[in-house]
Amino acid sequence: MAEAARLAMARTESVPVPASVPESASGSAPGVAGRWWSARRRERLTQVGFLLPAVLYLGAFFGYPVVKNVVMGFQHYTTATFYTGAAPWVGFANYLAVTGSAVFGRAVLNTVLFTVGSIAGQFTIGLAIAVFFHRRFPLSGMLRSLLLLPWLIPLIVSSAVWRWILDEDHGVLNRSLGGAHLPWLTSTSLALLAVVLVNIWIGIPFNTTILYGGLQDIPQELYEAAAMDGATGLRAFWYVTWPLLRPVVTVVLVLGVVYTLKVLDIILGLTNAGPANATQTLATQSYQLSFQRFDFGQGAALGNILIVVSLLFAVGYLRASRRAVQS
Description:
By secondary structure, the chain is mostly helical. The chain is built from 15 helices and no strands.
């Protein structure tokens, strides 16, 4: 027995005891941590790989033109620059020239009136049509499809058609008004109104489509619960529809204002910013400075002013809407 015990002890002492696996500072084995970090790094590289083409595209086709336009606003950039490559730095001279011109004040006023009138008309009519189509009825799908036609037609084609409709002598509108000869496009008091009405007609489908999509996301159970509390009709719209539709309204209004501020082809196709600058806006003035007078520096300066105005409105309105939702 003593001999067997001695042999067992000798065999136990001869067996090597495995060394303990060192732990990293985080308490895990280095191999596991290495594999984890490797997988994390591969996932991050995959994300970057998917985002990189979009970032390059935005930088090349959006970022570079904006930066170039900002720089041109501080240079004397004309057609001679394309041959000589010289674009002297003039600082804020271009901005002082465009803001001090006799047309600038009229262009700012027309831009405000054109934007406010267009957005008010497009949103009000678009919301009314969206609420109307929210209740299904026969042929509602076909009618919604037909509403998209003004939005699908090229703007220059729409302006040409409306120029014929609003013609003073042979226009369909004047004939429908009992042979009236209203100078819609040649009168300094009616031209801006005519341009606003045409832009409203073009923008209604966009507002209707986006607002109708927002209405579809509102659960019907909320209307049923509101009806049990006596909220129907306008009360249901005010207490149920409008609060839940507010995020969509924010998007529609911000995009509408940004788009309307830069409307160019409709005005040029209808009135060419006339008569007597009655429909001159900041966008049309920037176009005329750049591509009719070939003063690209002043045109870029006016374009930069439009960019700043659009950004200020978008940021201000989004912050106000966020505070309203949080409250």
